[in-house]
Amino acid sequence: MPSELPANSIQLNDAVETRCRAWLGAIARGDEAALTALYRATVDRTFAVAVSIVSDRSLAEDVTAEVYHGVWQKAATFDPSKGRALTWILTMSRNRAIDTLRQRAVRARTVENAAASATDDSSDGPEDLLDALESGHRVQRALASLSDDERQLVALAFFRDYSHAEIASHTGQPLGTVKSRIRRALQAMGRELETEQTA
C-alpha cells in the first residue's frame, strides 16, 4: 500500500500550483514570458500525459505544442474556483491526445475505404472508434507494403488532404501519372487488406 505524500512534497505541489495560477493570469494579459515560464514548469508532465495516450513520441510532441498554443488562447477562461491550474493543463493534454487518435482513426478508415473502393467499389457502414483504430493498424501494414513513392502519394492525398493537382505540383509528376499511381497504390492496398481479412 503506497505511503502518504510527505509534507514537503505537498508544499511543493501547492507552490507549483500558486505559480501556475499566477502565470495563467499573466498569460491572459498577453505576457509571453509567463507562457515560457509555465511551459518550462509543466511541459514534462503535459508530455507524459500525451505520450501515455498516443504511444508515439513525435505525435506527443505535436500534441504538447498544441496544448500550449491552447493555453495561450484560453488562459482567460481558467477559473481557479473550479479546479487546479495544473489539472486544467493536463486535462487539455488528455483531450487533445484523444482527439488526435480519433482524427488518425478517421483518416485511416478513409484510406481503407478508398482502397476497398479501388478494388470492388464496396463501402463499409458506420464503425465505432475501436474498430476504426483497429483498421488503422491494418492500413499501416498495407501502407508498408507500398513503395516509398506510392506511400508518399497516398499520404499526401489522404493524410494531408492534397488534391491530385496539388500533389502533381508538390512532386513534379504529371497529373495523369499522379492519378494512375494513386489508383494502383490503392488497388494494391485493397488486395493487401482483403488478404488480411481472409487470413
Give a summary of the structure in a few sentences:
The chain has eight helices and no strands. It has helices at 7-28, 32-54, 57-74, 85-120, 129-144, 148-158, 164-171, 175-198. Helix 1 (7-28) packs across helix 2 (32-54), helix 2 crosses helix 4 (85-120) and helix 4 (85-120) packs across helix 5.
Low-pLDDT residue spans: 1-12, 119-134
Structural class: mainly alpha
What characteristic shape results from the CA principal axes? elongated
Order of helices and strands: HHHHHHHH
For the structure shown, list the relevant keywords.
single chain; disordered N terminus; 199 residues
Your description of this structure?
The chain has helices spanning 7-28, 32-54, 57-74, 85-120, 129-144, 148-158, 164-171, 175-198. It has 8 helices and no strands. It is mainly alpha-helical and 199 residues long.
Write the layout of secondary structure elements.
Blueprint: H1 7-28, H2 32-54, H3 57-74, H4 85-120, H5 129-144, H6 148-158, H7 164-171, H8 175-198
Helix pairs in contact: 1-2, 2-3, 2-4, 3-4, 4-5, 4-8, 5-8, 6-8, 7-8
